[in-house]
Amino acid sequence: MVRARTRTQEASTTKILKKEVLAPGIKRFELDAPEVARKAKPGQFVVLRIHEQGERIPLTIGDIRAEEGVVVIVFMEVGKTTRQLGTLEQGDEIADFIGPLGRPSEIEDYGTVVCVAGGVGTPEIYPIARALKQAGNKVISILGFRSKDLRMMEEEMKAVSDELIVTTDDGSYGTKGFVTDALKSVIERGEKLDKVFAVGPVIMMKMVSKTTEPHGISTLVSLNPIMVDATGMCGVCRVTVGGEMKLACVDGPEFDGHQVDFDELMTRLKVYLTEEKQSLEAYEQRRTEHQGGCGCCGSKEVKDA
Ligand code: FAD
Ligand code: FES
Ligand code: MG
User: Fold this and answer.
1) pLDDT(304) > 50
2) Spacing, Cα 162 to ligand 1 middle (Å)
3) 61 C-alpha to ligand 2 centroid (Å)
């Protein structure tokens, strides 16, 4: 069965209104996107293409300021396209920008909810935590980073949470350990948890789901499989949930963490590793060749590479 989007979303150009570096290799853009901002809800995502020859990549809507027509994206530079995106500056334009896509997060008054995020999952969970707080929930947020210099958005998350726990893997800030250690402590202190939301690396979402499952705590995770068209047509984003095939772009990206086949997702995310590595090396090579000598670095020629 093909589950394409029910309404056509036209790709449009968007301008970068503000650029910030949140942590090494993690950048935040405020984008001029009134149409997307007007319709977007927490948990949805956009697909963008830097230039006409570029690949399409999905990124979660990190914040929505509908009245100003602003949409925020936060991305980690992991490969060619995200690295290239990171070279764009305030005032630059992104050729294609489509959204909002995917189903919004299930926001309601559950009672006590825990929002768990790892690394760049923090800006992704922020609008979800804020909406949960506005819906009347007691919100406990747990943020995990590898080390102190990689942490981000602590103040913003504090403002929408009743309790905020920050963990670092190396103990350089907050509580030493993983988000799952902090989650176990919250469960063990006897707090009745009605829902857990987890956004971050697949392994983190798997471990969070394993932690909550024996306690019967309903857990939603935001899946990030490779996506191409994001319209439900190509099938690339298929994931197995409760033994059934689902398309993350139209059926998700949020799913019941106790039903997700995380191991299959991890395997599928690595399918194009060789090509991705080659593409990044070729891009970096072209950037190096253009540095200093010919004066056209950052020019259309390199940006479109
Ligand atoms: P590449 O070197 O091409 O790939 C690096 C790794 O990224 C791959 O091994 C693969 O695991 C993954 N990847 C590659 N291409 C895609 C693709 N087309 N779609 C999805 N994953 C891909 N990242 C963020 O930093 N911030 C976000 O807010 C964010 N939100 C996402 C929301 C959704 C719904 C999904 C599906 C992914 C999201 N991602 C987010 C992941 C982001 O799309 C990838 O990091 C990006 O596409 C990598 O592109 P690249 O060319 O830089 O890296
Ligand atoms: Fe193509 Fe989901 S069906 S990305
Ligand atoms: Mg890529």
Assistant:
1) yes
2) 31
3) 18
Q: Which ligand is nearest to the CA of 1?
A: 2
Determine whether the shortest distance from the Cβ of 180 to ligand 1 is under 6 A. no
- pLDDT over 90 (residue 79): yes
User: Which one of 28, 220, 276 would you pick to mutate in the ligand 1 pocket, going by the greatest count of ligand atoms within 8 A of its CB?
Assistant: 276
Mean pLDDT, to the nearest integer, of 165-183?
96
Contact 132, 113 (CB under 8 A): yes
112-269 has which CATH code? 3.40.50.80
- Centre of ligand 2 from the C-alpha of residue 101, in Å: 11
Residue 295 pLDDT: 44
Q: Distance between CA 174 and CA 172 in Å, rounded?
A: 7
* pLDDT tens readout for residues 156-167: 999 999 999 999
**Rounded Cα–Cα distance for residues 287 and 299 (Å):** 10
Q: CA 92 to CA 34: how far, in whole Å?
A: 17
Q: Which of 254, 304, 299 is nearest to 283 (CA)?
A: 304
120 lines ligand 1 (CB under 6 A): yes
Give me the residue spans of the domains in the chain: 112-269
Instruction: Write out pLDDT tens, residues 6-62.
Output: 344 667 899 999 999 998 899 999 999 999 999 999 999 999 999 988 999 999 999
Residue 58 CA to ligand 1 centre (angstroms) = 6
Q: Residue 25 CA: which ligand is closest?
A: 1
Contact 220, 121 (CB under 8 A): no
Q: Which residue has the tokens 């979303």?
A: 9
Residue with tokens 């997060």: 105
Helices 202-212 and 179-188: crossing angle, nearest 10°? 20
pLDDT score at 299: 47
Locate 277 and state its tokens: 């590595």
pLDDT at position 279: 85
Put simply, whether the predicted model's pTM sits higher than 0.70 gets the answer: yes
